[in-house]
Amino acid sequence: MIPADPALAQWPAALVLGPVLAAVAAFIWPRAGAVVGLGASAATLAGALALALQIHDSGPIRTVPGGWDAPLGIAMYADGLAALLLVMTAGVGTAVALATAGAGPRQGTFFWPLWLLLLGGLNGLYLAADAFNLYITLEIVGLAAVGLTALSGTPESVRAALTYLLAGLMGSLLFLLGVALLYSAHGRVDFAGLATATAAGPAVSAALVAMLVGLALKTAIVPLHVWLPAAHANATPPASALLSALVIKGSLYAAMRLWLAVFDPAAALGTLMGLLGAGAIVWGSVQALRAPRLKLVVAYSTLAQVGLILLAFAVAGDDAAAVAWRGAVYLMLAHAVAKAAMFLAVGRIVAAVGHDDLDRLAEARVRPGPAQFAFALAAVSLIGLPPSGGFVGKWLLLEGSIAAGTWPWAAVIAAATLLSAAYMTRVLAQFFRTDGVPGGEIVRPGWTRADAVPLALALAALGLGIAAAGPLALLAPVPASGVTP
Amino acid sequence: MTTATALLYGLGGALLAGMALYRLVTAADWLRRIVAVNVLAVGVASILIATAYRGPAAPADPVPHAFVLTGIVVLVSTSAVALALIRLLHARDENHHDSR
User: Fold this and answer.
1) pLDDT digits (tens, 9 = 90+) for A117-129
2) Exposed e or buried b for every residue in A125-164, given b needs 16+ CB within 10 A?
3) How many domains does chain A have?
4) Which residues of A fall within a CB distance of 8 Å from B93?
5) What fold, for B3-98?
6) Could you tell me if residue A384 is inside a domain?
7) What's the pTM value of the predicted model, to 2 decimals?
8) Chain A partners of B96 at a C-beta cutoff of 8 Å?
9) Distance of CA A121 to CAs A124, A135, A139, A232, A319, Å?
10) Which of A3, A129, A220, A418 has its CA 20 to 30 Å from the CA of residue A377?
11) Within an 8 Å CB–CB cutoff, is residue A468 touching chain B?
């Protein structure tokens, strides 16, 4: 499977270079933006799938572009976890790109360069094999995400983008501080070297805390989430879909990778992460229950879903933790697909109804059935009902926390399910209510091509539950000491 | 430079970073926040540079210096984006007031 030619063996680097070059091309030729964007997204998806197959057959791949190895050069490392997230990013991104291209040129010429830059940055992040490369790619992802937030050009979105930029910058500088402390303690920043370095001390503990706080800011972990609702609720629908489905996952992955491969955190810190997760579940859900706007409900639900994924940090014990981590990764996957579907569906609903004021949805004369159907299907996965991908993720997380004997976390997972069912039902109920319509005349627009993408994504979120064996097989060696690059 | 000065640089950097973090959270206007982020970056860079010290005989470690250089590039570009967004926001707000 591995090509004999050493130059060919470095092909995973194309997953980073390709989208970045395409971003430049889309910026120079805005007219060709949609063609370049769709082509590059689809090619990246094909590449990510090929990489996943190769890893499935012959194990993790380590490449050193240009033949420069650590500590001077930048190595790339791809295992099952990285491959899965690469496929997720390219897959969801291609779907969102299809929806954007279908919506016509009014989405703005800057969408394509920004999305391609984001794709290249995220791919680089998932392939990073050292902490400093994580910092660089986090910064690229952050800048592209800020651009996407401001894309709609409304004062609210620009203000949200500024807040997001400063919060993200603060997060990445804290992360850089962690890298500095790590380097001062070990004299290197590559994961492989750090994992074998045993010199734990106050500097390493401080590095872990600085990095985790920085990443928590970027991932919008309650209470460091204040930038998220405005940013995600005021962006254009495709931008919201990308921000919520993919961008959040980048920094979450970085935290996960550092936690598993580099540090050997104390159990107490894991419990603290779990408590933060529980807090995020409660706060995000309560805000989703109170939010006056549809897009805000969807944005706040992201906070609760991230909280759920955080519970995996709290599960200790090798075997139990392995199961919980697989659950957490599967939840990331399912959330990406379902949340992208939901934001795109909300975009269709807002376009049809003319507003996203939740209390006035029952008075709407226009009922965009296909988009509402896609929203409901996506909600099934986000709540975690069988047979969706969200269900499989939650089940594994539950199994892990019970195997570890930490029953309180199982109760938190159950409460999270109930709360998410409550805030999703709050929206779905408005779709069915027709008593508020003046005159009782209801217009039901039929299916259009623009409904295809959100519906396909929502169905994919369900399909992730039915076809869970494939992706989970890729994750099989995680993290039984198999994550160390 | 001695170990003591390296420590001084490190502590000075930590102090700068701490003050900048405080200002970043409490400042009310955008420009002050951007300045605070820049000070924070300088603080982090000072700590990084201090870690490069390897004793009086050996030359300084070049790797942290490369980190700082990369960090400066990132900081310049992100500050530029932030300033551009502030200008955009001002333009939008003025249009908004004019239309009233």
Assistant:
1) 999 999 999 999 9
2) bbbbbbbbbbbbbbbbbbbbbbbbbbbbeebebbbbbbbb
3) 1
4) 155
5) Helix Hairpins (1.10.287)
6) yes
7) 0.94
8) 155
9) 5, 11, 8, 19, 33
10) A220
11) no
